[in-house]
Automatic annotation (TrEMBL):
Lineage summary: Eukaryota, Viridiplantae, Streptophyta, Embryophyta, Tracheophyta
Name of the protein described by the UniProt record: LanC-like protein GCR2
Keywords for the protein's UniProt record, in alphabetical order: Metal-binding, Zinc
Gene3D superfamilies reported in the protein's UniProt record: 1.50.10.10
Gene Ontology molecular function: metal ion binding
Length: 407
């Protein structure tokens, strides 16, 4: 188990850092941790703006601006999403222009794609395209992308999970409604999809102990990418009927009751393997869902469960990968989410600690072969694209959002 992550030897609290400072000789990471937050976030910002350039060169420049993998997860749309974040920091119009060019190429590359989600499919291309067009003040382009979005058809045999299924489409609808305006996608249209998701969940649960259950490729997953955590997370942004709300709460309570003794969450129903502490599988993705439940329902049990799951991420979350799907960057967003929810500055310290670990060590550890650079090393979800996004989010931590997942 221990070889999946680095032991977390950083001080547990900001007070402990202060004590540390006066008693021991300091390595570069400890020095970073003892700096005031603004000094650290300035350092991360400068690093991010340089890294962003590398990501653009590697994923767009060297390919001659041709798109093979258009997805947000591992492909060019992820670079566009990162550039949009950079634009929000720099307000540099060239960034927005480049971003629009990349999405245009993704639009061509995804024209015949059957995938309908934000993270892996065409909904992501059309939704991000529309939002960029709005920022660029291009009404015609905005209408064009919205028309294309509305042409997306959901096959009847679609799964329900986030990466390839119904909630992955619904998330794109919420993204549009947030950034373009309420009712850009009508409540009625979204409700029809929600009803199908709830119906499918009740059918598979079959009056079992958990009110809703789903399957993807024959497995009943629990995590954010393919399972219950991701499905419940998106459903909580929808207008639900009272009985649907009760089923979502009941599903979350079932998960909390059946977590591992360590506090981590199984990757699928009945699994006894307490290994993965990723956004995609395990406590980090579940923490984000529980934090959202605490915010939406205002119930203490969800807040407590989110806090408990966050402890697992602190202890076992320094993964030997950098990305946001199953790497340290994704796990850092857990602390940013808990900070936003509770206002407790110790969570901001923990986010700072994980981000500083990445800044100080990641590239060296990758070069030494002690950390995996990701199969797609510059991508948003698996590579340093995600780390770069995190560093930009550290500038305004109360506004930070896990990419393509937290609204
Ligand atoms: Zn993953």
């Amino acid at each position: 188990m221990a070889d999946r992550f680095f032991p977390n030897e950083m001080p547990e609290t900001s007070l402990a850092v202060a004590a540390h400072e006066t008693t021991t000789a300091q390595d570069s990471l400890t020095k970073l941790l003892s700096l005031p937050y603004t000094a650290v976030s300035d350092t991360l910002k400068n690093s991010a703006l340089a890294l962003k350039q590398t990501v653009v060169n590697e994923t767009w420049g060297v390919s001659g601006k041709r798109v093979q993998d258009y997805t947000l997860y591992t492909g060019a749309l992820g670079t566009a999403y990162l550039l949009f974040k950079a634009y929000q920091v720099t307000k540099n119009d060239n960034e927005l222009k480049l971003c629009c060019d990349i999405v245009k190429a993704c639009d061509s590359a995804s024209r015949d794609s059957g995938c309908v989600t934000f993270i892996c499919g065409r909904a992501g291309v059309c939704a991000l395209g529309a939002v960029l067009a709005k920022h660029a003040g291009d009404e015609r382009l905005l209408d064009l992308y919205l028309t294309k979005f509305k042409e997306i058809k959901l096959p009847s045999d679609l799964p329900n999970e986030l990466l390839y299924g119904r909630v992955g489409f619904l998330w794109a609808c919420s993204f549009l409604n947030k950034h373009i305006g309420k009712d850009t996608i009508s409540t009625a249209q979204m409700r029809a999809v929600v009803d199908e998701i709830i119906k499918a969940g009740r059918r598979l649960a079959n009056r079992g102990r958990c009110p809703l259950m789903y399957e993807w490729h024959g497995k009943k997953y629990w995590g954010a990418a393919h399972g219950l955590a991701g499905i419940m997370h998106v459903l909580m942004d929808m207008e639900l009927k009272p009985d649907q709300v009760e089923d979502v709460k009941g599903t979350l309570r079932y998960m909390i009751k059946n977590r591992f003794p360590s506090g981590n969450y199984p990757s699928s129903e009945g699994s006894e393997s307490d290994r993965l502490v990723h956004w995609c599988h395990g406590a980090p993705g579940v923490t984000l869902t529980l934090a959202k439940a605490a915010e939406v329902f205002g119930e203490k049990e969800f807040l407590q469960a989110a806090v408990d799951a966050g402890e697992v991420v602190w202890k076992r979350g320094l993964l030997k990968r950098v990305g946001i799907c199953h790497g340290i960057s994704g796990n850092t967003y857990v602390f940013l989410s808990l900070y936003r929810l509770t206002g407790n500055v110790e969570y901001l310290y923990r986010a700072k600690a994980f981000a500083c670990f990445l800044y100080d060590r990641a590239q060296k550890l990758i070069a030494e072969g002690k950390m995996h650079g990701g199969d797609r090393p510059y991508s948003l979800f698996e590579g340093i694209g995600g780390m770069t996004h995190l560093f930009l989010d550290m500038i305004e931590p109360s506004e930070a959002r896990f990419p393509a997942y937290e609204l």
